[in-house]
Amino acid sequence: MQHGRGVALADFNRDGKMDIVYGNWNGPHRLFLQLPTRKHRFKDIATSKFSMPSPVRTVIAADFDNDNELEVFFNNIAYRGPSANRLFRVSRREHGDPQIEELNVGEAAEPEGRGTGAVVTDFDGDGRLDLIVSHGESAAQPLSVYRVIQGSSNRWLRVIPRTRWGAFARGAKVVLYTRRSGPHTRIIDGGSGYLCEMEPVAHFGLAGKDLATSVEVFWPDGRSMAKPLDRSDMNTVLEVLYPKDQSTTAPELECGHGFVPNEHGRCTDEDECTRFPSVCPAERPVCTNTYGSFKCRANKRCNHGYQPNDDGTACVAQVAYFGGSHSGVEVGGGGVCVCVCTCVCVGAERLLLLLFSLLLSSQMT
Ligand SMILES: [Ca+2]
Ligand SMILES: [Ca+2]
Ligand SMILES: [Ca+2]
Ligand SMILES: [Ca+2]
């Protein structure tokens, strides 16, 4: 029996689709990457270190050091011997799944800590996230507050969407477009831990010389806003009020490489394959559009049941969607499936003709 004790939503590979990190009390922790196909919706990319079971209480996904990449913090309760808290960085890679590396969590390891929950917030307003760990369920211990000591030169932006009544807009999605690191997506949700609630703020880190160019907020009722940003908006807290009227005049947006404003004034992926039909070189002519970019592959031909791999250098078996068995003739919905060497499905009006053809061919052989 396995029990989730913390679930966080985050877009680790920055493809615009939310991924799920899942802390598991009696089993391996998981990091489910949402896939672009509908066939297989999620893939677990947790490494053996990441998935190692622990008595977890809270999972936090946040950019603690403002370097563009998200960290995952596991808060554990040392109720049957030491169980240190752990920290991982999940870094986006251009081609391939994100890289997961364990970081030195420093004093926040608390190997003897009876962690009951943890939250992330900018406690002192310096633009760097702070970590608060609570204890007390199985032994009296004081609260811990930790300050991040990495990434002090990185820029940041904090966005706080409001509802029409001025409350924090739980359920809102905030997308920040940048000049160098693509779009970053955050969900203002109800929290990610056992007995905990995270701050209702979309916190973004911007490493090096990266700059945010625009921000979009989508409320759960479908209303949205977009706002261009400039250098003066960096290292600030941006309050975004609920738009009373959906504006029909779109602002001038700089969406960043691979994105263009659509007819509603919101940044969207540019379909390079359609817009530039000759974008791929002759030796890799097959173009596949991707979020923020595109891919080219060789025109590989494969036998039935196989399909080209991502770069078109080999054929790989197609994974079947349904299994099961069938036999004989089954009639339903006015049609019929006839299975001889293979199955042929026809409508009822063609059944007599098909049976007549089969009878004729059997008499001729
Ligand atoms: Ca994603
Ligand atoms: Ca980071
Ligand atoms: Ca802080
Ligand atoms: Ca694209």
From TrEMBL:
Keywords: Disulfide bond, EGF-like domain, Signal. It comes from the Eukaryota. GO terms for biological process: developmental process. Pfam families: EGF_CA, FG-GAP_3, UnbV_ASPIC. Residues 269-316 form the EGF-like calcium-binding domain. InterPro entries: Crtac1 (IPR027039), EGF-like_Ca-bd_dom (IPR001881), EGF_Ca-bd_CS (IPR018097), FG-GAP (IPR013517), Integrin_alpha_N (IPR028994), NOTCH1_EGF-like (IPR049883), UnbV_ASPIC (IPR011519). PROSITE patterns: EGF_CA (PS01187). The keyword Hydrolase does not apply. This is EGF-like calcium-binding domain-containing protein. It comes from Coilia grayii.
